[in-house]
Design goal:
Length: about 210
């Protein structure tokens, strides 16, 4: 399954609780995933350690949205083992052009040093992947992303699977049944990835995180 997969079919799959992956970058085929357990971030429980908060306060990086979406996806795929193949790269770009795929990017001057991208449907954000070329860049990306999702009215941040890195930041694992219930509620929820309360800054992001976590 790859040649027949359209952006519209992909969105329908996400709304049904499944998502595609590939065995490797070189494999042109895709297969559907419907895990028994799903990783999610409960948006009020992102864990910002003292050291991460101190790092964010330095504002060493610049945060941009959808500035170089394709470069973020390519950065996520640029590793020895990846499930992002050429058909997925193309589909993500099409979804981005349709307004359903977004990237939050971490820049150090002219260098893209980290980022995260995902799919938005209703009040659900399906996090696809992230990458980091500087210490803490992916953690900073997640902090700003979760702040943006809160401001935009989202209720579900799907991480697909859970890793020790995500768990250390507050991600949890839930059952497929629980996930489907949360997904159904999120899809009916109006949300806007671009709705913001003022201009996000290190101070405002950390203040909102402290108030809700």
């Amino acid at each position: 399954m790859s040649g027949d997969l359209t952006p519209e079919l992909l969105l329908s799959a996400y709304a049904s609780g499944i998502f595609p992956m590939s065995e490797s970058r070189e494999d042109d085929q895709l297969f559907w995933m419907d895990p028994c357990h799903r990783g999610i971030f409960e948006l009020d429980n992102f864990n910002i350690s003292r050291s991460l908060a101190k790092f964010i306060r330095r504002e060493s990086f610049q945060i941009r949205i959808n500035f170089r979406f394709s470069a973020v996806v390519e950065g996520c795929a640029d590793r020895n083992e990846t499930w992002i193949n050429a058909p997925l790269l193309d589909l993500y770009q099409q979804l981005h052009e349709m307004g359903f795929a977004q990237s939050l990017e971490i820049w150090d001057g002219k260098d893209l040093v980290g980022g995260v991208f995902g799919i938005t449907l209703g009040g659900a954000f399906f996090g696809e992947s992230m990458f980091s070329r500087r210490t803490n860049a992916s953690k900073v990306a997640l902090a700003y992303l979760i702040d943006r999702l809160r401001a935009g009215g989202f209720s579900l941040f799907d991480t697909q699977f859970i890793t020790p890195h995500l768990a250390s930041l507050g991600a949890i694992e839930i059952s497929r049944e629980d996930y489907r219930q949360r997904l159904a509620l999120a899809l009916d929820r109006p949300a806007d990835f671009f709705r913001q309360v003022g201009t996000p800054s290190a101070h405002s992001v950390l203040q909102r995180m402290t108030q809700t976590s």
